């Protein structure tokens, strides 16, 4: 009796957790998210959840936007700045080992930097540079309202 | 210690499973000391055709999972055959296959520094 009650409680908390995760962002399949987040600490998960929900654009990086400590992180910041993004929330993974490892599991992406826009994972350095070159990054930043309307002219022209 | 050859071997081995049907692979060791080993990997495959960049990267991450765990950084350039041909008009899938047999390390690339 006691045992099955306990099991139920555990099961319930696991179910709630997986539901919670599946409702967050559309970047990954729910089952995938659940597996990816299993070993992450609660503190790291809560911190990442909060950060990506409270900031339109977040870069999990080595160093800070003002002082990147790694060439890949620097490249991502430079690309964003080139597009005129002036508010970048940077999370310095070097200062927090739990986040440094946790973010890899959270996103199911093995490397840092990682860029989130409006709570959704966009890519790492290669993907960001590629999207910059193809023009997709500009489109995305305008669509998500990260860039203001005056920067929109170019893309709108192209589309029409 | 993961080498450029480990990475290209894994990718060519994967060719049999067709998870990524590799037409051409180039791995350059760009390790500069300090942080750990770094590689630049170019893969040409029709598996990437009409696949978004993020998904292409995830697919390669899954195939190279073990190798990536052992290194510091990896840069991926992933092309479909048509995309690569548009970039390098003289390249053909047939010539690439032969190249891979003869020089699997692809270490003849002039950019590959270090060690």
TrEMBL record, chain A:
Domain Glutaredoxin residue range list: 58-122
Key words of the record: 2Fe-2S, Iron, Iron-sulfur, Metal-binding, Redox-active center
Keyword Iron (UniProt): yes
GO MF, any single term: disulfide oxidoreductase activity
Keyword field contains Iron-sulfur: yes
InterPro entries with a match to the protein in the record: Glutaredoxin, GRX_PICOT-like, Monothiol_GRX-rel, Thioredoxin-like_sf
GO biological process: [2Fe-2S] cluster assembly
CC per GO annotation: mitochondrial matrix
Record protein name field: Monothiol glutaredoxin-5, mitochondrial
Organism encoding this protein: Coemansia aciculifera
UniProtKB/TrEMBL annotation, chain B:
Highest taxon of the lineage: Eukaryota
Stated name of the protein: Uncharacterized protein
